[in-house]
Amino acid sequence: MTCPPARAARTGRRTEPTVIGPLHESAHAKINLYLHVTGRRPDGYHLLDSLVVFADAGDVLSLHPAQRRPETGRPEIGRPEIGRPGAVGLDITGPFGAGLVADGDSNLILRAARLLRAELDDTDLLAPVRIVLEKNLPVASGIGGGSADAAAALRLLLRAWPGRAPTRERLMALAVELGADVPVCIDQLPARMGGVGERLGPAPALPACGLMLVNCGEAVATPAVFRARAPHFTPPAALPAAWHDVAAMVRDLAALTNDLQDAACMICPTIRTVLQVLETAPGCRLARMSGSGATCFALFDTPQAARDARDAVRRPGWWVWAGGLHAPADQRVTA
Ligand SMILES: C[C@@](CO)(OP(=O)(O)O)[C@H](O)COP(=O)(O)OP(=O)(O)OC[C@H]1O[C@@H](n2ccc(N)nc2=O)[C@H](O)[C@@H]1O
Ligand SMILES: Nc1ncnc2c1ncn2[C@@H]1O[C@H](COP(=O)(O)OP(=O)(O)O)[C@@H](O)[C@H]1O
């Protein structure tokens, strides 16, 4: 893609967007180890206090240069949109891909791309790209898969598009515009989440532990769960600076709640069955719903203990994942 000639002459700058090779980002499942609804804003959004961690389970986003037909240099046939500077095409694959459409108004990846593009200078120099989403996480399920995808898309595009990146503060503001859960998904690190999701603080140091995620296959809409919740508020939790073992972590978490769990169980009663099955799984230390559901999680002493319990939990139509927490390399996004 070249700059329009007048603009190229005016700016005297490089006229070709940088061609980038395939880039990859993983978008990990977010788990709310507890979730207190502490209040409500005048606009109806709820104030939350939550300890958020990330599982090793996740979607994968790959970014490729947009395809062109070599003999003409024109955009790929049937994908005219993909040749324009800053254009982002999206292909969706993976076991849960069929539940999503690559639509610019609804898909959080394309919405993230549009928001970032509007933020950057020199959009003529943004290489057209194609993102491939491998959708491994169930959709609308309380583990923030869409939010994690949006955050991963922002990270990918910041790597792919040269120019002045937004400051971290601005990036977080863009993230919360996409959804309350998106800011915490930017770094994918354990965090104490406050406000409506935009206030992030340090989590207690966590012990290594095992984790199981179970989704019964019924999508649960977040707004409906917030609407159905009992109208009381819970104060923020008092947490230690560190949990040295799983027993200490589970003891403290057991005294806390997910304030959306009862409402989600009313909307989707199968969640109660999932929780009963998890509570009786060998080695389970704590079972609870994540976010607005329907996915539930169980904590185990080790990832292997979680994997060993998988067969006792599997039911037809249920998604069952077992492993550990996501342990990222230092990947804070800064500008
Ligand atoms: C409940 C949580 C807890 O982590 O997780 P999920 O169930 O989505 O995984 C999140 O706060 C969800 O975040 P996210 O899914 O990004 O929410 P948004 O798209 O911003 O909002 C969807 C709707 O949920 C309600 N909502 C969301 C967040 C919040 N703090 N208060 C709210 O009342 C609002 O009705 C809003 O219209
Ligand atoms: N890339 C995406 N992955 C998942 N959901 C998406 C995506 N883009 C848009 N959505 C929409 O976002 C909503 C929330 O999805 P998700 O983040 O998976 O669930 P939750 O907010 O319950 O954790 C769903 O209604 C879904 O249709």
TrEMBL record:
Pfam families referenced in this protein's UniProt entry, alphabetically: GHMP_kinases_C, GHMP_kinases_N
GO molecular function: 4-(cytidine 5'-diphospho)-2-C-methyl-D-erythritol kinase activity
Domain GHMP kinase C-terminal, chain residue ranges per copy: 245-316
Assigned keywords, A-Z: ATP-binding, Isoprene biosynthesis, Kinase, Nucleotide-binding, Transferase
EC number(s) from the headed UniProt entry: 2.7.1.148
Record: residues binding ATP: 138-148
The reaction(s) this protein catalyses: 4-CDP-2-C-methyl-D-erythritol + ATP = 4-CDP-2-C-methyl-D-erythritol 2-phosphate + ADP + H(+)
PANTHER family tied to this protein: 4-DIPHOSPHOCYTIDYL-2-C-METHYL-D-ERYTHRITOL KINASE, CHLOROPLASTIC
Family: Belongs to the GHMP kinase family. IspE subfamily.
Biological role stated in the UniProt entry: Catalyzes the phosphorylation of the position 2 hydroxy group of 4-diphosphocytidyl-2C-methyl-D-erythritol.
Protein name as catalogued: 4-diphosphocytidyl-2-C-methyl-D-erythritol kinase
